[in-house]
Amino acid sequence: MSSQRPSAWYAVPAFAFFALFAALPMILVIYLSFTAWDGLGTPQLNGGENWSRLLDDSEARASVWRTLLLMVMSWLVQTPIALLVGVWAAGKQRSRAVLSSIFFLPLLLSTAAIALLWQALLEPNFGAFVGGPLFLGDPDIALYTVVLVISWQFIPFHTLLYQGAARAVPPSLYEAATLDGATRVGKFLHITLPQLRYTIVTSSVLMLVGSLTTFDTVLILTNGGPGTATRILPLHMYITGFSGFEMGYASAIAVVLVVLGTALSIAVMRWSGFRSMSSQQEGS
Amino acid sequence: MKSRPNWPAGLFALVWLAFILGPLIYLVTVSLRTRSEYLGKGAWELPDALTLDNYVTVLTGGFGQYLLNNVIVTVATVGIVVLVAVPAAYAVVRNTGQFVQRGFTLILMGLAIPAQATIIPVYLMITRMQLYDTLTAIILPTAAFALPVAMLVLTNSLRDVPRELYEAQSIDGAGPLRVLVSLVLPLARPAIMTVVVYTSLNAWNGFLFPLVLTQSESSRVLTLGLWDFQGQFGTNVPALLAAVTLSVLPIFAVYLIGRRFLLSGLTAGFGK
After folding, report:
1. A129 domain residue, yes or no
2. Would A33 be classed as within a structural domain?
3. What does the buried/exposed string (b/e) look like for A49-69 if buried means 16 or more CB atoms within 10 Å of the residue's CB?
4. How many domains in chain A?
5. What ipTM was predicted for this assembly?
6. How much is the mean pLDDT over chain B?
7. What is the CATH number of the domain that holds A88?
8. Do residue B120 and residue A126 have CB atoms under 8 angstroms apart?
9. What is the pLDDT of residues A2-13, one digit of tens each?
């Protein structure tokens, strides 16, 4: 009978493809972080030079802090809204179905489209808020403006997750609570929230890792400015590598990015007791 | 059980609606304005006349080429992913050997790799393979980074197939290839659709790999084209927003036709 099972060859193309274009780059980036390379010639090993430089780089340190601030802010803004909108949209009423199909519209736009749209919208002279704050031009609020744009882009995705999960909560739980005289708020706190805890974890991991690796939005919106007010870690890596042509040093920053991302996912999963395998590639 | 309308929640939903819809209304209305009206009038004043000139400007300014490139990249990426992931998922579910199972674990670990962190080595590899500034350069890494989610979705779906179904086919003398075609493909159809949607959206909206791996206009995809329009049009924001609107239309059409498919593809692997 075992001869009737598919041979390992069935998996070889997929494995080879993944190994070459996803796994090998992961190994190469560690190697490159120990080299000097301008992007044209051959990478030259230079020992731990990039790494000792990274420890003294105040701009890199500042960009790590900005990244952390961005992660915390976007989690704090997105999670409550996505949760509430998702639970609301899970209702069976016709009006809710119609409105939630509109709520999902930002999902159809590419990051580039969203960044360009918001840039036009917030443009200080001809945009929609002439005479208002400078938004992206004000170093003190530019990063918060980025959080606003990211929220517009990604809350719909997390709303979708919460809507699906809220629909899967057994109605009998609510019926029993109603018989016991529970209020609407009480039912939300004591039934909905506990039932959604795995979704909250999944959504949070996706959100945190997503904002850790935010790149194109900020590149288009501000290119890290004004000054370096929005230069977050992935952008710092990109500018160092592809504008400053210090690919070796940029690789060291990339490794930091991977370590932070992995540590973060493991921490959230551990802390929440979440065991099942889940992903973190999509979303912010 | 009938419940009372929830007024505070309804109010909150309306505020949220305004926040979501406002920018989209701005997008479409400004794209229909003339440039002089955009510069002369406030954003919230009603225009004297609407115009499609901006769309003409965009369509004659290289948009067609970018669109075609996008279609090529998307179709090729989806083709590769489906072609390699379906047989591999079948092997993972039915072949208990070490090689297949270890390889699958490795691919799942790939879920944790942020693509951003690999652009420098990918750039190195692509230039060494003489593929820089080609559409192939975009397709290969985009497909590789779609594989973990694709494998996860497909294996989850094939694990739900009762073992008896596979065994009945084998007793009938069907080889693995027959089983793949006549059993796995039909049963995995919804999962394959999810993978197709997820991979298409990633490829269609991809920005990072095209940014780093291509340069010339002939290999420019839509997302980069939009960014380039920004420099090209300068203050001609209505034309830029017309280009943005046009870039959304194909996916909007898919949304109208198959909302369920699109949304399930978006949450591929995370929905459960």
Report:
1. yes
2. no
3. ebeeebeebeebebbbebbee
4. 1
5. 0.90
6. 89
7. 1.10.3720.10
8. no
9. 457 889 999 999
